Amino acid sequence: VQLQAFGGGLVQAGGSLRLSCVASGLTFSNYAMGWFRQAPGKEREFVGAVAYGGIISSYADSVKGRFTISRDNAQNTVYLQMNSLRPEDTAVYYCAARWRTIVERTTAYEYWGQGTLVTVSS
What we know:
Helices cover 0% and strands 52% of the residues. By secondary structure, the protein is mainly beta. The model has no long low-confidence stretch (mean pLDDT 97).
């Protein structure tokens, strides 16, 4: 199984970025997909996730209303649209996969991507 996340970069506060994560080696439509992030010196934290069918999603309070997760099961891809970015959103962002349902615990996810760095300047 491989998860490849990309789309990170440097953006000014208030700007937008869209991250993508392409999965291979698994039946993508059977897996919930999560996004997590880890800032320097901090623990990895839940950002949001979408269930296997793409209808149910969940977000951390810190990103609710600014970030949106979507998925394209035909393309084995999950997206994280990030709007109104803040300096505190600066982190390495990871995608992860688990069977079917959404949970927020990092330990519940079976497969992880390599991470993509997002830097938000003030």
